[in-house]
Structure to design on (294 residues):
């Protein structure tokens, strides 16, 4: 068996857009083994101050400076609080671009459903090596990109997909961006 | 989509594709929607086929959306499953006809 990948790009232009699409697989595809999805063209908007839910600090230690300043933070439980020598641990909301679902024409039916994430907002969580000059980023701490493992051998050569925009919908603006869907499959040599 | 087309052609073919074969039951679900009503149908392990092009109604589920007034979709979906949300946009009573397909063991 040999692995191959096919890429399908979904172009999103409107807030709340629901984009239905089909991914055509070659006839020598024996089994779908993995799915990946990435977002391109929207990076500059992440973390921008405008809009609700852009980056939402969700949890902070009780009694810390920002907590006392009246920010709408929740409280963190004691076991986690004890692990915070610097007085603050932030969970940030990982920004979601939208929802992706894939459906096979065979018995597997809807076999894949995910939130397409823009980035991992908590990649440096609990990492106290952060300084004013250096901050953990996805490219320093991120794990190696791996596909989500699936096993679909329906002998169906057309996948139906639906992508539902959440990024623009939550912010009330139209955003142009692309979602790349990677379908990994086995072929027989 | 018409109910005749769905019953005679679309549903048997889809059930065959899904491996269900002829082991399924069908029901006509004629919903009466009150003005501005939102209804949620839990159709896990079931299929709802829309039997008509309904106006002033939105039907959305995991597989897509059917809403003739929704401009941000590139396709309308007639086959729904999972959690189906139905909204009546009209200020009067509206009717919606589905064919419910229930697979059997």
């Amino acid at each position: 068996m040999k692995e191959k990948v096919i890429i399908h790009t979904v172009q999103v232009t409107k807030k709340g857009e629901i984009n239905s699409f089909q991914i055509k697989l070659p006839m020598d595809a024996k089994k779908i083994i993995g799915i990946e999805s990435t977002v391109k063209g929207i990076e500059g908007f992440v973390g921008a101050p405008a809009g609700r839910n852009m980056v939402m600090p969700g949890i902070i230690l009780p009694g810390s400076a920002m907590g006392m300043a009246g920010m709408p933070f929740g409280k963190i439980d004691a076991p986690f609080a004890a692990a915070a020598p610097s007085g603050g641990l932030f969970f940030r909301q990982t920004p979601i671009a939208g929802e992706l679902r894939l459906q096979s024409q065979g018995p597997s039916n809807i076999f894949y459903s995910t939130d397409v994430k823009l980035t991992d907002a908590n990649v440096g969580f609990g990492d106290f090596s952060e300084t004013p000059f250096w901050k953990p980023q996805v490219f320093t701490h991120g794990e190696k990109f791996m596909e989500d493992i699936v096993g679909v051998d329906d002998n169906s050569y057309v996948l139906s997909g639906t992508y539902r925009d959440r990024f623009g919908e939550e912010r009330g603006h139209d955003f142009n961006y692309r979602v790349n869907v990677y379908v990994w499959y086995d072929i027989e040599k | 989509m018409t109910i005749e087309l769905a019953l005679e052609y679309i549903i048997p073919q889809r059930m065959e594709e899904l491996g269900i074969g002829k082991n399924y039951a069908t029901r006509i679900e004629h919903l009466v929607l009150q003005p501005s009503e939102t209804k949620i149908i839990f159709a896990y392990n079931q299929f709802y086929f829309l039997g008509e092009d309904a106006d002033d109604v939105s039907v959305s589920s995991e597989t897509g959306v059917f809403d003739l007034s929704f401009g941000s979709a590139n396709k309308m979906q007639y086959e729904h499953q999972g959690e189906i949300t139905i909204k009546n946009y009209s200020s009067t009573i509206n009717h919606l006809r589905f064919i419910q397909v229930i697979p059997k063991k």
